[in-house]
Amino acid sequence: MPRRAVVKYDPLTEHLKNLHPEQVDALEMMRGVYINQVALSTAVVSLQRHAFDSDNDVHELADSVAANTLPRLQAVAEEMEKQTL
């Protein structure tokens, strides 16, 4: 079995070495945003799994989340409930 060739020149690494400081800061910021998105997605999936695995009513959980984390949207939801289709 032939050995894999060792790459001595990695274009991505070379490109990252040549970035300006503000570009590095922007990449770090984007990395932080991505990490936060992953953490939030994980939390949402965990909440959904808990809601479906527990005996609690899913609608009660949704109302609780809306009341605690999205208070500005409650007024919108109430207004929509008043409207007839």
Can you tell me about this structure?
The protein has 85 residues and is mostly helical. The chain is built from 4 helices and no strands. 0% of the residues are buried.
Fraction in helix: over 70%
How many strands? 0
Spatial gap, N to C terminus: 70 Å
**Poorly predicted runs of 5 or more residues:** none
Mean pLDDT: 76
Strand content: under 5%
How many H/I helical runs?
A: 4
| SSE arrangement, N to C | HHHH
> How can the largest sheet be summarized?
none
Sheet/helix structural class: mainly alpha
Shape: elongated
Radius of gyration: 24 Å
Write a short abstract of this structure.
The protein is an all-alpha fold. Helix content is 75%, strand content 0%.
Short key terms for the protein model shown above:
elongated; 85 residues; mainly alpha
